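Re: export button greyed out
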Amino acid sequence: MALEFAAPIARLIDELMKMPTVGPKSAARLAFYVLGASRDDAQRLAAAILEVKEKIRPCRTCFNLAEGEVCPVCTDPLRDARQICVVADARDVVALERAREFRGRYHVLGGLISPMDGVGPDNLTVGALTDRVAAEQVEEIILATDSTVSGETTALYLTKVLKPLGVRLSRLAYGLPHGMNLEYADEVTLARSLQGRRPVE
Amino acid sequence: MALEFAAPIARLIDELMKMPTVGPKSAARLAFYVLGASRDDAQRLAAAILEVKEKIRPCRTCFNLAEGEVCPVCTDPLRDARQICVVADARDVVALERAREFRGRYHVLGGLISPMDGVGPDNLTVGALTDRVAAEQVEEIILATDSTVSGETTALYLTKVLKPLGVRLSRLAYGLPHGMNLEYADEVTLARSLQGRRPVE
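Workaround output, generated via the alternate export path:
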């Protein structure tokens, strides 16, 4: 606990430092924001923190974040139930929704297979995914896991499990990110962008 | 409000984005921390925010942050009351306390003179400072304002006001920061480090 601060400020800084990428200096800066903020703003912030913990649950169907039983994507009748995009966590849903390209539904695994961290398929929502494929009229599953060792491992495992169910499987394209200069791209990205090259029409 | 998020999450992100240097992406990252945190941790964070607003007040004497009437520095009998270090705000007290060099007391102005922003001497705690000089046995006042136009203006103004009171005035040394290569220093810093050069003993 930082000695220079009065106890309530030090406590707030300690709590803020539990957040990702928030070190002592950022935490102090944020604490000073709270000190300088209006009482209303501080109360709204505290209330918003508590409300999120109270109201947000995993969607019963896809494990995306939901206010209530079912998430907005699963509730939306315009979303195509024949396509399921499988992602590691709810943050990935947000990122993909921002791209405004996918009109199907999601399935949130709740992590990626990582034997080093003791995460196996049983710790993820794989069973619920195979149940969905059996129960719903799913035609295509897009494996949208990270381009990392855990992401690849998980995609491989899901391929093995889902293939026998007769559903079409696809994987996100991996290659040069938008706006990147070729000379700055790493070898793996370049190799993948070559492997995934497409004919010019 | 971000459409991709359930309303409580969007509200939390909006509140978090009011904080300095927190943009939409950082706010989302912090909100996801809250979502993933234990209920206890979220409650502790919310409570710490409210506690700070409730309990922290400006010190009656020096306007530093205080839990109660008087701040820890003013309460400490070991701090030398003959020296007052004048700073713009309570953050500067924290920075100076970290340096563990100053053993006197502080005076927090509550800002710097800045006609552009409509801040004049009357908006600062200058009156309380001159009262302290008259009432306490102050021997030296260290003007520790920023090395900026507002900081200089404020230091000049305070010099004009305090000089007649017969108190010794000093100013922080300005020069090369610790660890900086001379070749990367800007012209003003170099000019000041030359002006402030000290004989080698």
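The mean pLDDT of chain A is 89. The button fix ships in the next patch.
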